[in-house]
Design brief:
With 216 residues, the chain is an all-beta fold. 0% of the residues lie in helices and 31% in strands. It has no helices and eleven strands.
Length: 216
């Protein structure tokens, strides 16, 4: 019913042991608090005890699984490795726990906003990164780059960040190539200009010596 039989906190090993003999009846185990960085199990676990043998000596273990939260770091850099601040990206909606963690696990320098369609708008900060926090495990987030700063071209590759049960963090990096400098157009060679013809030398008529019959 609504009568609380026992309540307390788990120890370092994750167990809470009330050590109370329970009379026959139906019992419900509920989790009321949780550790930051985890999503609590909201479903209760129920047990029914019947018969005299269900007193001391019979032990049931109620396992309540809390799923750890993860986050995706989205990073935009140039081909030289320098961070690019002010780049914008779009991410698909992911399974996010809104109130589980009040603050990101590391300093958020970028801007994260939720759009009306459930997607995320991302803007990188001074370190070239932006964080998608509070992601529940087994979440895939598809990310595309929309804009970059002057002097760079956007990385058009669509990337996916994956949060799994064992890997609660992921880094997705976009590499923006630099815009190639425009090459000057080759100057065409000048067309040869026609040269004026040189004036022809005048022919000078040689004088004819008179025929005197003197061979000398």
């Amino acid at each position: 019913g609504s009568t609380i039989v026992a309540e307390g906190e788990t120890g370092a090993d994750g167990y809470f042991r009330p050590y109370l003999p329970l009379p026959d009846g139906a019992y419900r185990v509920e989790q009321t608090t949780y550790k930051e960085g985890y999503v609590p199990q909201v479903n209760s676990v129920s047990y029914v005890y019947q018969g005299a043998s269900s007193g001391l000596g019979d032990v049931d273990v109620a396992e309540l699984e809390n799923q750890p939260l993860g986050y995706i770091i989205v990073k935009v850099v140039g081909t030289d490795g320098n961070p690019i601040a002010g780049a914008t990206l779009k991410a698909t909606a992911a399974n996010i726990a809104r109130s589980a963690v009040p603050n990101p696990l590391f300093t958020q320098t970028g801007i994260l906003t939720m759009e009306a369609d459930g997607s995320y708008s991302l803007t990188t900060g001074t370190d070239g990164t932006v964080l998608i926090p509070n992601l529940i495990g087994n979440t895939s987030t598809t990310i595309t780059q929309l804009t970059t700063i002057d002097g760079y071209q956007i990385d058009t590759t669509v990337r996916v960040g994956q949060i799994t049960g064992t890997a609660t963090t992921a880094t997705v990096t976009f590499v923006d190539p630099t815009v190639p400098e425009p090459q000057p157009e080759p100057t065409p060679a000048p067309e040869p200009q026609p040269q004026p013809e040189a004036p022809k030398a005048k022919k000078v008529k040689k004088s004819v010596l008179p025929n005197t019959g003197d061979n000398a």
